[in-house]
Design brief:
The structure is a single chain. The protein has six helices and five strands, in the order H-H-E-H-E-H-H-E-H-E-E. The protein is α+β, with helices and mostly antiparallel strands. About 5% of the residues have low confidence.
């Protein structure tokens, strides 16, 4: 069950659980040929723990991930949960995936090509941040 489904089920108990589109793993977006052509530096499934707990697992000790809020479309359900639960932005990004199910870390010069490739598969994709020097943390900017 996805975070979005859990959130909707919490608000609308009879929410149908089979409404989510297939995810990138189910449609083979990250097959071996794609992975080789993209030169992936990190691949993160954003699950419980959101950005803050999941992304550092793939970062070198001397790097931070900077996530730029507002660079992707956030589903209205997250705003509703935040308002009704009086939840801070930081906690929302730690507890929920905010609509981002997978983070692909690639070289900056490959970013546009990777985005085009994902979008060609009829999936949403955004450039949501960058890697900076640091100490294996996620910064929400």
């Amino acid at each position: 069950m996805t975070g979005r489904t859990i959130a909707l089920t919490a608000i609308v108990p009879r929410f149908p659980r089979k409404t989510s589109p297939p995810n990138c793993l189910q449609i083979g977006l990250f097959n071996p040929g794609t992975r080789r052509s993209w030169s992936i530096k990190g691949l993160v499934h954003i699950t419980g723990g959101g950005f803050v707990d999941n992304i550092p697992r793939v970062l070198p000790d001397d790097c931070n991930a900077v996530i730029m809020r507002g660079t992707w479309d956030v589903l209205p359900i997250y705003g509703l949960l935040q308002a009704r639960g009086k939840v801070s932005d930081a906690e929302m990004h730690q507890v929920f995936n905010m609509g981002i199910g997978m983070v692909v870390i690639v070289r900056e010069e490959e970013s546009a090509r990777v985005l085009r490739s994902i979008r060609a598969q009829k999936m949403n994709a955004w450039e949501i941040g960058f890697i900076d020097s640091g100490n294996r943390r996620v910064q929400l900017a």
